[in-house]
Automatic annotation (TrEMBL):
Record GO cellular component, one term: plasma membrane
Name by which UniProt lists this protein: Multidrug ABC transporter ATP-binding protein
Domain of life: Bacteria
Originating organism: Paludifilum halophilum
Transmembrane segments: 57-76, 130-153, 159-177, 242-265
ABC transporter domain span: 337-571
Membrane topology: Multi-pass membrane protein
CDD domains xrefs: ABC_6TM_TmrA_like (cd18544), ABCC_Glucan_exporter_like (cd03254)
Subcellular location, principal: membrane
Keywords: ATP-binding, Membrane, Nucleotide-binding, Transmembrane, Transmembrane helix, Transport
Subcellular locations according to the entry: Cell membrane
Molecular function in Gene Ontology: ABC-type oligopeptide transporter activity; ATP binding; ATP hydrolysis activity
Length: 587
């Protein structure tokens, strides 16, 4: 099944593949014809003592011509096979990467990032070996074996038939190797994925590792995983030592002894031409060499098949991101949001949202507050359609969330996360994000709107300043401002803010709050807030506790109720006063 799926990737390259096979057959024919020409020289000229210059020169010239032609054709067919293989792997990697881009967030919640990267890079690289080394080697050597057998039958049918009977024995050894090596190689690839996952986690959390002095623990864990990877490789090495070249060499030696014995018996009854004997032994030796090469490539074949299986498992993953359903194609014009008895669970067992219902009118700002784990982020995840809805319904402007296309939702809904993510490139590219409809003037206007332009102009290259991986060269506040700018540049109808001012200083926060107040005019806004002081001017505040809405109202109304919101507010106010008092003592 895996091989058939891999061969389907060859269909767009059928013409080149046929050309490569034709060239391979011609090269094989030229290579096999060499011993036959030597046989003619020995039996017809050398043994009788006939040294006619003209036919001998013609024979030698033909031999040399076939030799050079065979070398040239073998090079060209190998070039064609490599070109086809690289094209196939190029397309396979594009398919895998595109698939990953459309998988649901629930898949990434349970899949280690390092292991996923291992599949996309290491496993596809291993599959490349199937086409570059294994496929070309097998096709070339199978053609060589067929050509050698044909030449053998021309020389002596009885001996050739005996050699033909050896092939099932060699194929049996190859099948035995495949059977025992497959689980070993699967374990090797699994351990390699664990290594990559551990490395990825270590690199991303290096600051935490060093601060908490976890270097020794991380080294021990890495050493343990690396040891298991070593043990898996050693099992494979032992298997290769028994069932690869040694087994074929044993069969070839036994076959050579039997053929020489037959030669001795036949030689006692009738004269045997020396040229026939030379050509036959030469061909017999050449016949086992292709099998040796194929046996050596079996390890790469098994590794490629295991890796291909892991890649196809990823391609067959059905846990894709929720998509549009139905034939309607509505547009978000007002931004009225309704949650109607929504219940949701990440694992299918524990509900993180329980019968949630609320309405956000166009232009309103609704804040979500509550302790950690109360369900605030889950509401945002469902509204952004990151996860499939399980119970209840979410509508925007009267249409179910599932009726909207991804393009419409992403174009009309702007999301600003607490931890902003910047891409490698420059400042301008991180605001535009490939949206050609956004001009340089729009970028500058968005930056000014969110108070980001002052710090951008101070950069050595301004809007062309390079941005490294994840924007590590910028401060948290600067990254947040750029995240704001790219959201505003798209002019969304609905804003979703996940504690958007968490990583900026007080002065910058005041400027952003001022910008947000202008942004919210005419736009529906849902804001997750941990600092309650940032949502006092919200039209409505929803207080969540263990997945349920326990209170709702304005800031003043909730304080007057003396409920959970008031306790949270007083607690934060008390902590703020303590911090300010501590700061005053220090001064």
């Amino acid at each position: 099944m895996t091989i058939r799926r891999l061969l389907r990737y060859l269909q767009p390259h059928r013409k080149r593949l046929v050309l490569a096979l034709v060239v391979l057959l011609l090269a094989t024919g030229g290579d096999v014809a060499g011993p036959v020409l030597v046989k003619v020289f020995i039996d017809d000229y050398l043994t009788p003592g006939i040294f006619d210059p003209e036919p001998i020169t013609l024979l030698a010239g033909t031999y040399l011509l076939l030799l050079f032609l065979s070398v040239g054709l073998l090079y060209y067919q190998e070039f064609l096979f490599h070109r086809i293989a690289l094209r196939v792997i190029q397309q396979l990697r594009i398919d895998v990467f595109s698939k990953v881009q459309h998988l649901g967030l629930s898949f990434f919640d349970r899949t280690p990032g390092g292991g996923l990267i291992s599949r996309i890079t290491n496993d596809t690289e291993a599959v490349k070996e199937l086409f570059v080394r294994v496929l070309s080697t097998f096709v070339q050597n199978i053609a060589m074996v067929v050509g050698i057998l044909a030449a053998m039958f021309l020389l002596d049918a009885k001996w050739a038939f005996f050699c033909l009977m050896l092939i099932p024995l060699i194929l049996g050894v190859m099948q035995m190797y495949r059977r025992f090596s497959y689980p070993v190689y699967r374990r090797v690839r699994h351990q390699l994925g664990r290594l990559n996952a551990h490395l990825s986690e270590s690199i991303q959390g290096m600051n935490v590792i060093q601060v908490l002095r976890q270097q020794n623990r991380m080294r021990r864990e890495f050493e343990h995983i690396n040891g298991e990877h070593y043990e898996a490789h050693m099992k494979n090495t032992k298997l290769n030592g028994w069932l690869l070249r040694p087994a074929v060499d044993l069969i070839s030696l036994v076959a050579l002894m039997i053929v020489l014995s037959f030669f001795g018996v036949d030689g006692g009854e009738s004269a045997v031409r020396i040229g026939v004997l030379y050509a036959f032994l030469n061909l017999l030796d050449r016949m086992f060499e292709p099998f040796n090469q194929m046996m050596q490539q079996l390890s790469f074949l098994q590794q490629s098949l295991v890796s291909a299986g892991r890649v196809f498992e990823l391609l067959d993953e059905e846990e894709t991101a929720p998509a549009q359903s139905g034939k309607e194609n509505p547009r978000i014009r007002e931004g009225r949001i309704v949650f109607d008895r929504v219940t949701f669970s990440y694992d299918g067992q524990t509900d993180v949202l329980k019968d949630i219902s609320f309405t956000v009118e166009p232009g309103q700002t609704v804040a979500l507050v509550g302790h950690t784990g109360s369900g605030k982020s889950s509401i945002v995840n469902l509204l952004m359609r990151f996860y499939p809805l399980q119970k209840g319904d979410i509508t925007i402007d009267g249409y179910s969330l599932s009726a909207y296309s991804d393009e419409e939702l992403r174009r009309r809904m702007g999301l600003v996360l607490q931890d902003p993510f910047l891409f490698t490139g420059n400042v301008k590219e991180n605001i535009r994000l490939g949206r050609e409809s956004i001009s340089d003037d729009d970028i500058a206007e968005a930056a000014r709107f969110v108070q980001a332009e002052p710090f951008i102009k101070k950069l050595p290259r301004g809007y062309d300043e390079p941005v490294g991986e994840r924007g590590t060269t910028f401060s948290s506040g600067q990254r947040q401002l750029l995240s704001f700018a790219r959201t505003i540049a798209f002019k969304p109808k609905i804003l979703v803010l996940d504690e958007a001012t968490a990583h900026v200083d007080t002065e910058t926060e005041d400027k952003i709050q001022e910008a947000l107040s202008r942004m919210r005019k005419g736009r529906t806004t849902i804001a997750i807030a941990h600092r309650l002081s940032t949502v006092r001017d919200a039209d409505r505040i929803l207080v969540l506790h263990r997945g349920e809405i326990v209170e709702q109202g304005t800031h003043q109304e909730l304080l007057a109720r003396e409920g959970l919101y008031q306790k949270m507010y007083r607690l934060q106010q008390g902590l703020t006063e303590e911090v300010e008092s501590f700061g005053g003592v220090v001064q």
